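Write out this protein's structure.
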Amino acid sequence: MPAAGTARQNISGSRAGRIENRQEWQGNRQQRRDEVRNQVAENHPRLDFWSDHPNWAAWRINRPYRWATWAAITGWVGYGWSDATPYSYGENVYYSEDQVYYGDQQVATAEEYAQQAETIATSAPEVKPENGEWMPLGVFALTQDGQASGADPTMFMQLAISKEGIISGTLKNTATGQTQTLEGMADKKSQRVAWTVTGQQRPIMETGISNLTQDTAPALVHFADGQTQQWLLVRLEEPKEK
């Protein structure tokens, strides 16, 4: 994940307080999704996440933009999942003062919730990519949640999941030209999935595993200074061959 200062320059969103007007918020997400896709098509027609990351071939992924459905994930990951556990930040999962709620039930303090995400992210066993099997989860642009319009995105992620629930992929910052490797884990019980840049503890990004099967979904980013921001993942469509 990018450094906290860089992230806050690009995305000024606050943590996931309860959304009052859900219909308006969803409308903003759809408008922003369409805008982001147009911005990427105009400025990054052949967006390449791994040109400066030669080890990416070890993931054996030929179609990184492929959309993973819930049925595909449950058939791939050996966790025995059937029904998806929703994580709609600002709706059924939200912050109130220093507490985190799932529905109307208090589940953790803000600090505890971030620590849980760190525990999930760092629980991934060390597996050489070439020794694992990977399913692509897609390519996503990161942008501020709740706004109908915004600047061109500069941060993009490609994610994949192993049969053991390990998350891996790349983070590309087009503003700096830097590509970093991501690693994390999907939690079997809660269906929370969290990841960070390899070798770093924070920032940590987390969302629900079912969110990664949607075309537009919210996520949380926990920073080292204790702040949490709500971001939006916009799934990018596979570029058309010219």
